[in-house]
Amino acid sequence: MEKQENKKKESHELNLLDLILMFFQWIKKTSIGLFHFILKTLRFGFQYFWIITLCTFIALVVGFFCTKPSQVKVEGRSTLLFAPENRANVYNNLKVIQAYCGDLKVLPQLLNIEDSVAKKIREINIYNLCYSKDKYKNYHSNTQHYYGYINKYDDNTYDRIVGEPDVKNKMSKMGDTTNLIMSDRLMVGIKAKNLAGYNDVYNKIAQYLVAQPTINAIHQAFVEQTENRIEFCDNEIKRLDSLANHTYFNSPTDFSLKMNNTVLTGEVKKQLLYEEINQLYNWRQNLSYNLERYKSPAYFTSDVILMRSSRLIAIFLWMLGGIAFGYAVSLYVRYKKEIAAYMKKK
């Protein structure tokens, strides 16, 4: 029995060794085959050097002219900022501009731009800006009542977190499991050919949005509401400060309690209301910051960033395409009789 089991183990080990040897033999054959293929390709290229060189040269010339700045479609991007309450109106009006892109009758009138500028605009894209929950998990709405407000974050970090544009529009709504959409900003992308004044077009878009009555009305309501809350904070801070002073200076410093023949004495703890006043100061600071941040119904936060690919890489790809096309032509020249005979049989 033991001899049979040992024989089985030996045969099993031999089978594994055979598999390993077969694997290395396959790698060896593949490497040799690839090496021979490269040699044959190079030899074939030398035989038809004039065809491949001519096709490569033509591809380089065409690529040089096709990759000129005046011929390449470049996308400019900039971030549009607005009060969160205005998101739906701003988005809908941007969709109107996007819908008329390419309409040389409506778009120039809509944005008050020249026809020559409108002709150069090929696409207008709207991207959501998203941030990760892990990076931003402590952010809470600053509209909470100050008694329930917990100062777990510095609101200034809001603008220090760089939003990532959702170029593929995968984010459909707020509250996704992995990411969140920034509710107070959108990225607007404009693809155009040979457009020099990107910033001017973006300024025209901002002017169009600011001129919309619905956007203006909601923005004014936001400003009034924020100013009322700031006034409320100021009044509450004064009231609590006055109450704290009154409690501190007018309340007794100690107390005595007589129970039968025993007299208990102690010190009265004075309520200075530091925590409540500090929460109000934090809330007021955030409200003031929002009032300054959303100073306009809609505006672009920075100059346009142009997203263009490297011209050298594009020309290199044109060259590779020319080489591949040259090999295809060479193969046709080499086997044109066989190809003609094959086609006649069909």
Task: Spell out the blueprint of helices and strands.
Blueprint: H1 2-47, H2 49-66, E1 73-81, H3 87-99, H4 107-111, H5 115-120, E2 121-132, H6 157-160, E3 164-165, E4 179-193, H7 198-210, H8 213-250, E5 254-259, E6 262-267, H9 274-293, E7 299-300, E8 305-307, H10 311-334, H11 336-345
Helix pairs in contact: 2-10, 8-9
Shape: elongated
- N→C terminal distance: 67 Å
Order of helices and strands: HHEHHHEHEEHHEEHEEHH
* Helix proportion range: 55-70%
Mean pLDDT: 77
Please outline what is shown here:
57% of the residues lie in helices and 16% in strands.
Structure description:
Helices cover 57% and strands 16% of the residues. With 346 residues, the protein is an alpha+beta fold. Strands 1, 2, 3, 4, 7 and 8 form a six-stranded antiparallel sheet that branches. It has a two-stranded antiparallel sheet with strand order 5-6. Strand 5 and strand 6 (262-267) form a beta hairpin.
